[in-house]
Structures are given as structure tokens and as C-alpha cells.
Amino acid sequence: MLRRLLALTASLAMILAACGDDEGTPSNGEGECGPGHPALFEAGKLTVATGDPVFPPWMLDDNPAGGEGFENSVVYAVADELGFDAGDVVWVRTSWEGAIAPGAKDYDFNIQQYSITEDRREVVDFSTPYYSEEKVLVTFPDSPGADAQSLADIQGLRYGAMIGTTDLAYIEDVIGATDVAVFDELSDVFLAMEGRQIEATVVGLPTALFATAVQVPDAMIAGILPNSGGGEGLGMLFEKGSGFVTCVDQALAALDARGELAALATRWLTSGEGEIPRLSE
Fold first, then answer.
1. What count of other Cβ atoms lies within 10 Å of the Cβ of residue 132?
2. Do 198 and 160 contact (CB within 8 A), yes or no?
3. How far apart are CA 258 and CA 261, in angstroms?
4. Which element (helix H / strand E) includes 3?
5. Calculated CA dihedral for residues 249, 251, 257, 260, nearest 10 degrees
6. What is the pLDDT of residue 273?
7. In this structure, are residues 189 and 201 in contact, taking their beta carbons and an 8 Å threshold?
8. How far is residue 112's CA from residue 91's CA, in Å, rounded to a whole number?
9. 217 CB contacts (<8 Å, ≥6 apart)?
């Protein structure tokens, strides 16, 4: 019995050490939530995956290590909260679709606007949300969707969307559109819009602001779409069963409590959103 009690006590001590201190702030010492955590893909490093390429405002200049942009700013804030130096953050590139597939991951987490959904939770793990974005309709000023007031007004548009995304699910399941053109990458969706192969798509507001300013400047944001409840926000994606999720969640909670996540979102994502009308259901 004594041996079992000692083993139980040791296990509880390890769990408490992994979870940080009593106030929920990650501990950064050896073997805890910092560079010594045993679940890290590479000892002493925070290995973070993202897309190839990446686009503003999520990351600028296709350079995650530059720290300019919302998502890489959040990553460096999390790294600092966990006790990693900026130089200990190692960036790797993945496809969007490949990262969300089940199986082992050669990084600690992946960040590229993954919406947290119950279906995806069956094969990967997510952090708590670091941002909740609204979906918008992107179309052209001469499209019937330009002056739409409700979802019924935009059902018949010629849509395109990226495969496997909640944007595609929204077009098909919420708007009720059919014959949606499907593309492997979001950049291909906007190329198709530029070539007028499609006349509309649905994406998150920050992505739409950049797309209509740079990628498809002839297009416009016609309106903010009703919330469908199709996701819980954007989360960092982990290999199923990762032992590092709790540490990142604690870091995000600390950043949120100090208002740092909101400040980063205001700096990088929310410019111009107040001028966009809202569509009704």
C-alpha cells in the first residue's frame, strides 16, 4: 500500500508541475511548460508550422519569423509566455489540408486559421480559440450579390471555395448554394475570382480585407454573414493526444487576461470592419 501511495503522490506532483502554478500561469522550468517540456517535438525548441505561402494580415511578407502579422505575433507572445526565446521558435511549412489529416505531426502545433469544429476534433487537437472571426461575402460590384440583404439573395451566385474549409461548408450548408467550385488553396480561389471563373466566395473578414485590397482589387466585401455556429473560433492545431496543448492554453489565457490578444487583433485584423453591412438569415 505504501508503495502505491508513493507512486500516486509522485504522479500527482508531475501533473501539477506540467500544469504550472496555482494561478494558471505556465511554469517555464526544466520539464514543465517551458523549453524542458518532454512533449516538445525538438528539445528546447518550439516548432511551429504554418502555410506555404502565408498572407497578410495573418503574417506579412511570407515570412513567419519576421514577427509581422497577427498569427506570428500571437505565436511569439505565446512563446515568450512559456519561457522560449524568440530564437528558439522554429518555423516549418505545411499544406493546409495535409496538416488537418490524422496522424503524427513533425511540429508542436500548426497555425493557419484553423476553425475549431467537432469533426476535426476527432482526428486532431486544438488550443482554446485565439481569435473568433466573422465570415463575409466577397463578390463584384456588378454581381447580384453586391446589394444582397439576406442569404436568400445570394443563393444563386457562382461560388468557389477552398476544399475542407468551414467557408465551403457555409456556402453549401448555410447559404444552400450548389455546384460550388472547389480549390486546393485559398490563393487559387482568388485567382479564379480574378479571372471571373467564379463570382463569389465566403472567407473570414481579415482575409477578405486583404484580398479585396490586393489579390482581387475589383472585388468587394458585400456584407458580414449571419453566424451559423459552424465553429468555435480559430485554434492552434496539435497532433491528437499532444501533451503540450494544456501549456499553450494556459499561455493564451494569460495573454487574454492581460488584454494582449485583443491588442494584437486590433493592431493587425480589424481595420475598416465598421463600414460593412450585415446580411440577415
1. 14
2. yes
3. 8
4. helix 2-19
5. -120
6. 55
7. yes
8. 12
9. none
DSSP 8-state symbol, 213: I
Cβ burial of 59 (10 Å; 0-12, 13-18, 19+) is: buried
55, 191 in Cβ contact below 8 A?
A: no
pLDDT at 229: 62
CB 186 within 8 A of CB 163: no
* 18-73 pLDDT, tens digit each: 334 444 444 444 458 999 999 999 999 999 999 999 999 999 999 999 999 999 99
Dihedral in degrees, nearest 10, Cα atoms 62, 66, 71, 74 = 170
Give 75-81's long-range contacts (Cβ < 8 A, gap of 24+): 75/46, 75/48, 75/111, 77/251, 77/255, 77/260, 77/261, 77/264, 78/248, 78/251, 78/252, 78/255, 79/46, 81/26, 81/251, 81/254, 81/255
CA–CA dist 220, 88 (Å, integer): 40
CB atoms within 10 A of CB 152: 13
The span from the CA of 268 to the CA of 133, in Å, is: 13
